[in-house]
Every structure is written in structure tokens, then in C-alpha cells.
Automatic annotation (TrEMBL), chain A:
PANTHER family per record: BIOGENESIS OF LYSOSOME-RELATED ORGANELLES COMPLEX 1 SUBUNIT 2
Species per Swiss-Prot/TrEMBL record: Gouania willdenowi
GO molecular function: gamma-tubulin binding
Full protein name: Biogenesis of lysosome-related organelles complex 1 subunit 2
Highest taxon, organism lineage: Eukaryota
One of the GO biological process terms: endosomal transport
GO cellular component: BLOC-1 complex; BORC complex; gamma-tubulin complex
Disordered: region residues: 1-71
Pfam families: BLOC1_2 (PF10046)
UniProt cross-references to InterPro entries, sorted A to Z: BLOC1_su2
Low complexity composition-biased segments: 1-12, 37-51
Segments of skewed composition (Polar residues): 16-25
Family statement drawn from the similarity comment of this UniProt entry: Belongs to the BLOC1S2 family.
TrEMBL record, chain B:
Family per record: Belongs to the BORCS7 family.
Name this protein carries in UniProt: BLOC-1-related complex subunit 7
Cell compartments where the protein resides: Lysosome membrane
One GO location term (cellular component): lysosomal membrane
TM spans (from-to): none
Record bears the keyword Signal: no
Keywords for this protein: Lysosome, Membrane
Organism: Gouania willdenowi (Blunt-snouted clingfish)
Length: 181, 103
């Protein structure tokens, strides 16, 4: 937690001393070691010396130094806004992908429900037609009974025809016998 | 939360620290979004739904085909019933004729 406190203090020094940054545009880029040595000192001194004056201060014979910072880029605002816009677009894309999948699933379910409704209509028609057919076949039952009776009567007629045929043959034989005498 | 990235880096400029902080916040935001999506289990649900839909589609098509065949067969049965109805109306005359023959 102390580490974040030092980093936060360092950031506060930037927000509280903007003029110090502008004054520190002196060419101190090559002093890497000096900057590294000055950075912790600047972080340590920032809570104590909030309004930092440019240039080396000498209060009571003690010389102080300021952190050498790089000059701020002129289009930093534009870059920051661009970064946040792209971050928002990326996050929105991440979430939109799942939303689109759910929309696809919803459409597929709607099509399936339409298909089931069509099948329901077909089933209702088939059921109604089969009920009508059953009623019509039930109304045909008397005719079917008549057909059974016709079949029995035809069998009886056939038996009578056989008997008649046999009797006529007997008569023919007797007639021929009598004719020979 | 003391992570290695949040440890104080002595010798780094404030600008460098700031840019690293912004980058870590961006990464954290992206990780949070992905964790939210992972926690919603949407991928598992959607994959299971797609699997069920594939199985169901075949069954639906087969059922629809069977129902259409049933409707065609029902129509043919209706035609046959009408033909039978037309022909059995002659059976009354036939029965009367046979009755007179067998008298």
C-alpha cells in the first residue's frame, strides 16, 4: 500500500505543479542516471513542496533540484480520446457478439415455433378429415349389412342352381332310357 | 491489491508510471469484461442450445414429412369413401331382385 502511496504522491505532484513541468523543458534527456536519482527525490519532496518553483532553489544554502521531465506531446488529448474510443468500441464488440448470438437463437426459436404451428394446423385438418371419414363409414354400415345379405342370398341361389342342374340331368337320363324302350 | 505491477518503481518517470497505470487499467477493464461474459455462461448455454436445435431440426422435418403423407392418405380415403357410397346405393335393387328370384 505504501508503494501506491508513493506513486499517487508522484502523480499529485504533476497535477499540482503544471508550471514546473513547463519550466522543466530544459534539455535533460541525456541525464538518465540523474533523472533516476532525481525521481525518488522528487517523489519524496512532492508532498512537502507542493507549489514548486522552477529552477534550482537555494533556501538557506540548500540547493534543490527538480525532476527533468519530457515535454508534453501537443496531441496528447487527441490520443487519449482516441484510446478511450477504441477501448469502448472493443468492449462493445465483445458484448455485442454474445448479444448477436442470443438474437440468432431467438430467430431460430421463432422459426421453429412457426414450423410447429404449421404442423399443428396440418394435424388439426387431418383429425377433422378422419372424424368425417369415420362418420361416413359408420353411415355405410347398413349398406355393408345389405351386401352381406346379398352374399348369403347369392350362395342360396347358387345351391338352388346346382340342385336344378342335377335334377335336369336325372330327367334327361330317364327320358333317354324311356326312349330306348 | 499489491500486485507486482503496482510496486513502486524507483527510477521511472511519473509519465512512465502514468502510462503503465493507464495500460494496466485498460487490461483490467478488458479482463473484467471477459470475466463477466464467462460468468454469465452464455457460451455454454448457446452451444447446448445449438446442439439441441440440430437434433430437433431433423425430427421436425421428419414429422412434417409424415404429416403431409398422412394428409394425402386421408384425401385418398375420402375419394374411396365417395366411390363406395356411390356403388352401395345400387345394392338395394340387387337385394330386391334376389329376393324375388329365391321366392
Amino acid at each position: 500500500m505504501a508503494a501506491t502511496g508513493d506513486a499517487a504522491a508522484a502523480m499529485d505532484s504533476i497535477s499540482k505543479a503544471p508550471t514546473a513541468q513547463s519550466a522543466a523543458l530544459n534539455p535533460t534527456v541525456g541525464g538518465g542516471a540523474g533523472r533516476q536519482a532525481a525521481a525518488p527525490e522528487a517523489a519524496a519532496e512532492s508532498p512537502a513542496a507542493a507549489p514548486r518553483k522552477p529552477g534550482g532553489n537555494s533556501d538557506g544554502g540548500v540547493e534543490t533540484a527538480e525532476e527533468a521531465v519530457e515535454p508534453a506531446e501537443p496531441d496528447i488529448n487527441e490520443l487519449c480520446s482516441d484510446m478511450f474510443e477504441k477501448m469502448a468500441i472493443f468492449l462493445q464488440g465483445e458484448l455485442t457478439a454474445t448479444c448477436e448470438d442470443y438474437c440468432l437463437l431467438e430467430n431460430m426459436n421463432k422459426l421453429t415455433s412457426l414450423k410447429y404451428m404449421e404442423m399443428k394446423d396440418i394435424s388439426i385438418n387431418i383429425s377433422r378429415n378422419l372424424q368425417d371419414l369415420n362418420n361416413k363409414y359408420a353411415s355405410l354400415q347398413p349398406y355393408l349389412d345389405q351386401i352381406n345379405q346379398i352374399e348369403e342370398q347369392v350362395s342360396a341361389l347358387e345351391q338352388a342352381a346346382y340342385k336344378l342342374d342335377a335334377y335336369s340331368k336325372k330327367l334327361e337320363a330317364r327320358f333317354k332310357k324311356l326312349e330306348k324302350r | 491489491m499489491a500486485s507486482p505491477e503496482s510496486q513502486p518503481r524507483f527510477g521511472h518517470s511519473v509519465k512512465c508510471l502514468l502510462s503503465e497505470k493507464v495500460g494496466s487499467c485498460s487490461v483490467d477493464t478488458i479482463a473484467l469484461t471477459r470475466q463477466v461474459l464467462k460468468g454469465s455462461r452464455s457460451q455454454e448455454l448457446l452451444s447446448q442450445a445449438a446442439r439441441n436445435m440440430v437434433i430437433q431440426e431433423d425430427a421436425i422435418l421428419h414429422s412434417e414429412d409424415s404429416l403431409r403423407k398422412m394428409s394425402i392418405i386421408t384425401t385418398h380415403l375420402q375419394y374411396q369413401q365417395e366411390a363406395i357410397q356411390k356403388n352401395v346405393e345400387h345394392s338395394k335393387n340387387l337385394q330386391d331382385q334376389l329376393f324375388h328370384l329365391l321366392k
